[in-house]
Amino acid sequence: MAHHMWQHLSIFFSAFGPAINAFHLCRPIISIDACHLRDANNNILLVSYAIVDEETTHSWSWFLYQFRHFVAQDRQLSVILDWHQGIIHAMENLEEWKEPVGYHRFCLRHIKSNLMKKYKSVRLKSFCWDIGSTTQKRKFVKYKKQIKAINLEAWQYLDQIDKSQWYLFYDENHR
Hints:
Elements: E1 11-15, H1 17-23, E2 29-32, E3 48-52, H2 57-72, E4 77-81, H3 85-93, E5 102-106, H4 108-118, H5 122-133, H6 137-150, H7 152-159
Parallel strand pairs: 2-4, 4-5
Antiparallel strand pairs: 1-3
Helix pairs in contact: 2-3, 4-5, 5-6, 6-7
Pfam family, one: MULE
Domain MULE transposase: 39-114
Keywords: Signal
């Protein structure tokens, strides 16, 4: 009986040349892992993807390293991401992604969704969006007071997130 040795693919990265070329003509913003940015025509440009056994700190670091070297190259980028710890670790620890080369910000939709999982309130949901998207100090202060009045614990939950990574008001360079 012949024995066949099968090897399996454990990690795979793909980026197509035309997509890379198109990416370099777009605004310097990317979204990662279920954070979808659309253009005015409601289109998404898929630039690259990876197939991995599981999402881990190692696989995200590997993917972001590949993306930086083969796709983004030396381009300065803003990155919108969810709260996956592997992505956050890679963005904070890989030299290729540290500011000023890469700016990472959390997806407001994911922050709002995570808040709703913990504190089910339509009013909180609305104010979370409002406070994250305002650029005006008086509105920021107003929404902060409203969130605190509804649920102080929910405000403390939001306040532990780095302000510059999800409040437009605190994003000084509008990344």
